[in-house]
Amino acid sequence: MRPSGRDLSEMRAVSIETGVTKHAEGSCMIEIGDTHVLCTATIEPRVPPFIKGSGLGWVTAEYGMLPRSTTSRMRREAAMGKQGGRTVEIQRLIGRSLRAGVDRVALGERQITIDCDVIQADGGTRCASITGGWVALRLAVNKLMKTGDVVSDPLVDPVAAISCGIYAGQPILDLDYPEDSEAGVDGNFIMTGTKKLIEVQMSAEGSTYSRAQMNELLDLAEKGIDELVAIQKEATNA
To answer: What Gene3D superfamilies does the entry give (predicted)?
Structure first.
């Protein structure tokens, strides 16, 4: 029995509310159970120096957790003078995951920055950030297409992410914090809407796992991605 009472293949409740901020070109609040993340997209007429003049666009991301997004207060990273290693790792993951679903030629020489701010954390914040980040990106690109700044849709496939793991010897979908903290195996699966893998992060957290168990987790992940992409499309009217 899972602590939440969910079935092994049952996700937490997912909701995505769009247009939650006034100034960003695209924004949403994604809630996956008790994990809530604010995702905003900003369009800028510039690109990093290493692709300047190439005609290619760029999608990047920044990630952060509010001090009381967790059970005890965390110090702001700005107050400590630098970002932590976990933050840097996650925001790089978000950026490269979203770029995998983008035709950078069609985007043109501009940058879209996705900001993911964790309001409340209960496991799976990086997965929620990627899933919500795509929605914010979709809304921003819709504005570019509406104004005629972009002619061909640069978003070739939705991108979403879900966690899976082995808890009490059973493969489960969408780990919340109590499960994540006790799981023998923990993994994050990032995929496109057409089931193409972007990245898989799997680690033994106390017990090893077999190839067969890995396949079971991948099957669960595909089920979760299907559900998330359907919610993304409904939120963006895609």
So the answer is: GHMP Kinase, N-terminal domain (3.30.230.70)
73 annotated as belonging to a binding site for a ligand: no
206 lies in a domain?
Answer: yes
- CA–CA gap between residue 15 and residue 4 (Å, rounded): 18
Domain count, the chain: 1
Whether 123 is in a domain gets the answer yes
124 is in an annotated binding site: yes
Strands of 35-44's sheet, edge to edge? 14-18, 26-32, 35-44, 111-120, 58-65
Q: What is the mean pLDDT of each run of 10 residues along the chain (238 residues)?
A: 93 98 98 98 97 97 96 90 92 98 98 98 97 98 97 97 96 96 94 97 90 96 98 92
Ligand-binding annotation for 126, yes or no, is: yes
Q: Which of 186, 170, 174 is nearest to 32 (CA)?
A: 174
Is the C-alpha dihedral spanning 1, 195, 161, 204 positive or negative?
Answer: positive
Residue 9 domain-assigned? no
